[in-house]
Amino acid sequence: MDRKIVIAEDEAYLRLLIQQSIEELEDEGVEIFVAQDGPGALALIEREAPQLILLDVMMPGMNGFEVCERVRANRDLPQPYIILLTAKGQEYDKIRGTEAGADRYMTKPFNPDDLLDAARAVVC
Where does residue 108 rank: exposed (0-12), middle (13-18), buried (19+ CB within 10 A)? Predict the structure, then answer.
């Protein structure tokens, strides 16, 4: 089985930080793909069918909640594990993420080791 992760983050420095946090998984045969906005993320997810999506909530074009809902509604996709990454740590946002179909919610700033551990648990 192909092991793939999609990172969806609009801020370039955060995208790079997320990539660097999980890049050692590439040595274990995991492919990592990145998108800068919601529509790009959705297209990448539909094309690559990743096992894991690391999804920012606040993105242009389509927010992370919307991307999550569309992925969950697409029964042609193998259903991936979705981690929402966001600076919005209010309880309402966590509830909204759960309702959208997210499996986990991590607030920024995140611990890179925690993110790596979470990713490894899903794809390895």
Answer: middle
Smallest CA-to-CA distance from 105 within 89, 84, 122, 80 is with 84
In order along its 124 residues, the chain shows pLDDT tens digits of 589 999 999 999 999 999 999 999 999 999 999 999 999 999 999 999 999 999 999 999 999 999 999 999 999 999 999 999 988 777 888 889 999 999 999 988 899 999 999 999 999 9
Helix pair 12-22, 112-123: axis angle to 10 deg: 60
122 CB contacts (<8 Å, ≥6 apart)?
51, 52, 81
Domains belonging to the chain, first-starting first, are 4-111 (3.40.50.2300)
pTM of the model: 0.95
Burial class (CB in 10 A: 0-12, 13-18, 19+), 104: middle
DSSP structural state of residue 25: G
